[in-house]
Amino acid sequence: MVASQFVKTGLAISCITSTNTNVHLHMRIVVGLSGGVDSSVAALKLVEQGHEVIGMFMRNWHDESVTISDECPWIDDSNDAMLVADQLGIPFQVIDLSAEYKERIVEYMFTEYEAGRTPNPDVLCNREIKFDLFLKAALKIGADAVATGHYCRKDQTASGEHRLLAGADSNKDQSYFLCQLTQDQLSKAIFPIGELEKPDLRVIAKDAGLPTADKKDSQGLCFIGKVRLPDFLQQQLRVKIGDIIEIPADHEVFSKSRETLEERAEAYDYNSDMGSKVGEHQGAHFYTIGQRKGLNVGGKPEPLFVIGTDVNTNTIYVGCGDSHPGLLRDAIFVQNDEIHWVQPSCKLATGESREYSLRFRYRQPLQSGRIMKSENGLYLLFDKPQKGIASGQFATWYDGDALIGSGPIA
Q: What pLDDT is attached to residue 236?
């Protein structure tokens, strides 16, 4: 193992002026090695470019009681990251951010679910952990930038503003997860694999003999692994038996006129008198809009989907079939203090609107629509109704490949 000895090189961060994330100056770069193939190839490419590369693994979680043991246990991931660093001949460290992760990410998850909202911990992990605490730790040891294995790219405009771009592999694009990054964070971020297709990346890893070349992708929470979400949430959110109410598709609530932007962006307001009880659940805070699994209600001509939750009355509302009107909305709203502009130059003034491509969940195909700035916040208006919109999800708007801004749905 190469000795972990850090000496400030005094080199300045380069100015990236194209969609290619290759960095042209020789820099000291800390790579977030996760133990997966993506970050391994990211480190490999930077070493091949002649940079001084340091591998660092983030330890963010200790409680293995809710982690599915054969899905990304952190000890195995850390060992894999160390093997990659050893093969590449770069220094390697483990940084323990578990206390901060619990405070900033886990508590956020509990708070959001308890309030009946649907959080995205991966978005927050990138904003609060990888490109805040991890970045600061890298800068303290003299790094000029941090690199990750995200499938995304960046460039700069003529005025010097950084743009966050979708990855070249549309099937793996992870720009959505970085939708809360600031200009300062982007200025110190490098995405070495953003131009690669996943199959090509696997070939590169195999040709280089990287020990992670055939390792399957993690599907779990950011740097935790795959968890049993009910077990995870029940650490703080208690089981609470409540009613499952089915709302018929022809109920008058769905035929009422919703003409104003405010009305269109509001979730439907249900009550138990609108339908019939079809079962019981273990806590409204464990469910989200559009959810199908975990209802355990049979005997219906089509599957039931969650169309609403009320944590105050502990009631879940469901509809039969994936075309139920309760699943559909064509507008969402982001409050003023929650609007985040990745590209501040694109900010809208009150009353302005602009056409953009829209997305409110990872891997959702971009949807045509526009955004409109009101006095109280920002409306996202879809050309076609969308399924499964839930408060707490991050709404994003794109101009072509460029992610312009984001914010949690009210």
A: 77
Rounded Cα gap, residues 127 and 112, in angstroms: 17
pTM (two decimals): 0.89
User: Which of 156, 142, 196, 192 has its CA nearest to residue 173?
Assistant: 196
Distance from C-alpha of 157 to C-alpha of 155, rounded to nearest angstrom: 7
Backbone phi, psi, residue 201, to 5°: -65, -40
Active site annotation includes 125: yes
50 backbone dihedrals φ, ψ, rounded to 5°: 90, 15
Considering 72, 152, 179, 222, which one is annotated as catalytic?
Answer: 222
Helix 37-48 / helix 198-207 crossing angle, nearest 10 deg: 70
The answer to whether domain 28-233 has CATH 3.40.50.450 is no
Q: How many CA atoms lie within 13 A of 39 on its CB side?
A: 29
179 is catalytic: no
Selecting among 72, 125, 152, 179, the annotated active-site residue is 125
CB 213 within 8 A of CB 205: yes
Name residue, tokens 């995405």.
Answer: 191
* pLDDT tens profile 25-79: 789 999 999 999 999 999 999 999 999 999 999 988 766 555 544 554 678 889 9
The answer to whether 329 and 267 are in contact (CB under 8 A) is yes
Superfamily of domain 328-408: Translation factors (2.40.30.10)
